[in-house]
Structure formats: structure tokens, C-alpha cells
User: Fold these one by one.
Assistant:
Number 1:
Amino acid sequence: MKDLRRYLVLKYIQYLVLSSSNAISTFLGLLGSLYTMIILQSAKVSSKSTVVLISSLAKADILVSVSIVSEVVVWTFGVSVSPTAFTSALLRNLFTANTHISCLLLSCVAFEAYLITFFPTESRHLRTVKNARLTSRIIWILVIAECALFQTDDLLKASSTSLPIHSSCILLLRFSSVAAALLRSLSYLLGILLRIVNVYIYYKIFFSMSNR
């Protein structure tokens, strides 16, 4: 469990402390996720709701791995990727999806820690493996849907110059552009809110443990 706590600290720094990921934090995060996935295969790790959330958090880095491997293959072997706009947008959106999934899962872990600290008995029926799996599944579905919308918007923008003036695709382009812009604004505001909430939660937990 100490290793899992260190992993959570690493992920909190990577996604909720740093304003943006850099090469070092991304590399350390990938190593931490790989090590965590190995640890979770051990029979010594009991199946708890927190462990389920951490497992889903580690799996989210698969999206980053796919992006990095794709870029390395293209750069190393000079592979001609077609269409380029689609691929570059996909890699960027996979990074975004990883960030959003990780932030939401980390916030779920923080909320669970809050419940364990202040409402251990009353919240026991909520802190179940079934609910943790359901929560993780919902987060993945919502973020993948967000990624699909961003990808559609980027693709339509890239191909807008070739669309006929009176094409019905123009209406689709405007709709996806507005929806993507609103979702990006909402994601930005939600990211700020999650940072504030997480700081508050661990502030309360820290002083609660200190008083004890």
C-alpha cells in the first residue's frame, strides 16, 4: 500500500499540481503506472474500491503510451501517415482524454479518502468494489465520448476547405465546433474546480489527522 500511496502522490503532482505535463513527469507517470499494474497482479493486494480506482488510473496511461509509440514510429521510420490531420488530432486528443480520466479518478480517490476519514461507517455501503467499477466505467465512457467529439471537430475543420459551400456538412461543422468549444470551456472550469476541491479535501484530512 505504501507503493500505491507514492503512486497516487506522483499522479496528483502530474495532473493536479503541475499546470501542464512535461516529458519528465509523463515518463515518470508511465513508469509508475507500469509498476502499479504489476503490483496489482499480486495476490497480496486485496480487492477494494480504492484499488479498483487506482487500477483504472494506471490503465489510463495506455492512451499516452499509444500516442508516444505512434510518434516514435513515425519519427524513426519516416512512416507516411495519412491523413496527417486526423492522426495528429487523434494523438493530441488521446493525451487530453488521459488527463481528464486521470483527474476525475484522482478526485474520486480523494472523495473516498474523505468519506473514510469523516464518515467511515455511514459511507461503507457506498465504498464498494461494484460502485468503484461502475464509476470508473462511467468516467471512461464520458471521456471517450468527449474525445470522439473533439476528433470529429478537428477532422471537420481540417477538411472544411474541400466541402461544398451549400453542403449539409457546413451545418455539422458549425454544430461540432460550438459543442467542442463549450465542452473545452467546461473541461477547463471543471479542472480548476477539481483542483480546489482536492486541495480542500486533503487540507481537511491533514488537520483532522493532526488533531488526533
Number 2:
Amino acid sequence: TGALSTLQRQLEIQESQLRRTTSEKETLQKELREREQQLQAMSAKFCSMREERKHGEMMATMERENCSLRETVTKQESKLAEQDQLISDLQSAASQLQAKVLLNEYHIQEQQRAQEAIQSQADELQHAEQQTRVALQSVTSRFERYRSKIIQATFSAAGSKCPQAELTDEEVLEAMQKIINERMEFHQMLKQKGVK
């Protein structure tokens, strides 16, 4: 955005200089027309004065004036050509600045679109994370209920002591394995005695 503002300021400066140069060109063209009119007037005066007695001196004076006017016209034309070249250069520079401004605006729009896409992905990920947290809490709750039922079933058997402190998973597994082993031993003993 800073680069865009700088380019726009440069473009405004170039356009201001272009307007000023164009105004100077118009002024020079006006002066050139005036000089040409003076030259034509002097030429007409020169023609009319040739018929008079002192036309020799007048002719020399008018010739000098004509030369001076021609030099002035030549200078004005040269300066006008320089102004035309300057105007052309300023117009080219203004076009380049305008192109840079448009390019920077395009890049800014691309960055904004990319930022919006990233924000959308972040929102989707956040939503997915929330759903995962809810699912995890549900699974954890079910697991705790299931574990509680296992502990309750394990230590409600005859001869089992109710635990005084919270049990680890290993302790629960050991208690369940003990009950399973005792049951298998009891079942084996009944088979040996012939009891179905």
C-alpha cells in the first residue's frame, strides 16, 4: 500500500509537470504566432517602404529587424521542439507510473484473496478441532464409565476387597486376571470331580 501511494504521488507530480509544460508550450506557440505576424507586418512595411526615397536606410533597418525576428522565431521553434519532447517524455513516464499503480493494485488484490483463503482454512481447521474435542470428550466419558463398570464388576465378586484408593489400569487388569485364573482353576477342579 505504501508503494502504491508513492507511485500515485509520483504520477500526480508527473501530471502536474505535464500540465505546466503544456501551458508553456501554448504560450510559446502564441509568442511564435505573434512573432510571425510581426515578421509579416515588417515584410509588408518593407515592401511599401521600397518605393520611398529613403528606402535604402529603411531596408537595412528592416532587414536587421527581419534577421532578429527570424532568429527569435528559430529559437522559439527550437524551444517549442524541446517542450514537445519533454511533454512526450512526461507522458511516457506517466503511462509507466500508471501501469505500476495498476500492477500494485492487482498484487494487493491477489494478497487479499490469498489472505481470505487462509483465513477460511483456519476457520475450517478451528471448527474441525472443536468437533474433535467434543468427540474426544465423549469417548473419554464413555471410557471412564466402562472402566468404572469393569472395576465395579471386578471388585464386587465374593472375596474381593473394595479398593481404598484409585486404581491404575495395571491393578485392574491384575485383579481381573486373578478372578479369571481362579474361575479356570475352579472349573478344572469341577471337571476332575465329574461335575458338569
Number 3:
Amino acid sequence: SRNKEKAQSALNRFQAYKNKEAGILESNPNLRPKYVQSVTSLPQAEKWRSTVISEISVKLTRIQDVSINDYQIRDINDDLNSLFKEKRAWEYHIKSLGGNDYINFGKNMNQAGITDSSGLQVKGYRYFGRAKELPDVKQALEAQKKIRNDKTSARKAQDEEVKAMKSRLDRIDLSYYGWYDEINTTTHKKVSEEEI
């Protein structure tokens, strides 16, 4: 008989019921709820998060395979993006249930340079592994790099302009505004800035 029929047998349903009563956590990816908020148990939410992480790990390994074609690479990359969104949703839900704060922990790890599974990001979409080598992705990355360089050069020009303006302002003193015009020119006495 088929797997679907086996799963509906009385013995399998009884075993699932006993596991649920015993507190055994569900880990079958096919039974993972679509709506994260429907899980009210913190241990079960953490179990689903770990299941998502294991799926991410498998797909990150799969996307590096040289035998897959461009279409498969795009599909796997799409799956990875959706899995990372789902992982993030589980992390927020776990935090709201009173569990560990995986969000800030992950940020601290990335800042320390320990993990970098984020891939290259273009307009909010991340590219992993061989997906970075696709022709249209390379063009998008080059365009993004050019925009970044243009912004950097514009920022440098603006900084130089500000420095030039500051140096001009440093050269302007009270004599520029005519404070010393009223003083007797024969004594060449200057009024200090503290007196004014």
C-alpha cells in the first residue's frame, strides 16, 4: 500500500496520539504549520525553527552543486529566501513566547564575523552560492557596486566641499565684518574678541 494510506492506518494514528500525549515534539517538515502564530508551545516552536535551519543547511549545500542547471539554482535560491523569512518569523515568535532572543544573537554573531550565511543582497533579495554567478545577478551586483561607488565619490566630494567651506570660515575673522573699522588707524590697536 501507499505511504498516504499507511499514515491513515489506525496503528499510525494511535502512535501519533500517544506521542502527542507523551510530549514528543513533531518534526516532520511536511506537517510544519504555515501560520507561525498557531504554535503556542515554546519547545515546539524551537523544534520547528531547528527544522527550518536544517532545511536551510541542506539547500545551501545543494546550491553549490556544479551538476545543477540555472533553473534549479534559481528555484533553490527562491526556497532559501523563503526559508530565511520563515526562520526569522519563528525567531520573532519564540521571542514573543518568552524564549531565547535568537534575533539579537544572530546580529551579534554576524557583526563578529563568525557567520555569514546572508549571501549577497540586491534590492532586498539575497543570492547564495552559485546563484551569485548567474549572468543577470552579476549585472545587478555590478550595478549595485557602481551605485555604491557613485555614492561614495559623491560623499567624498561633499566632504571636500565642507572642508573647503570650513577653511574659508576659519580665515574670516572680526575684521571681515568691520569690527575694527571704528578703531583709530594711527594706533593700530585691535580689539580683542573677548571685549566684543
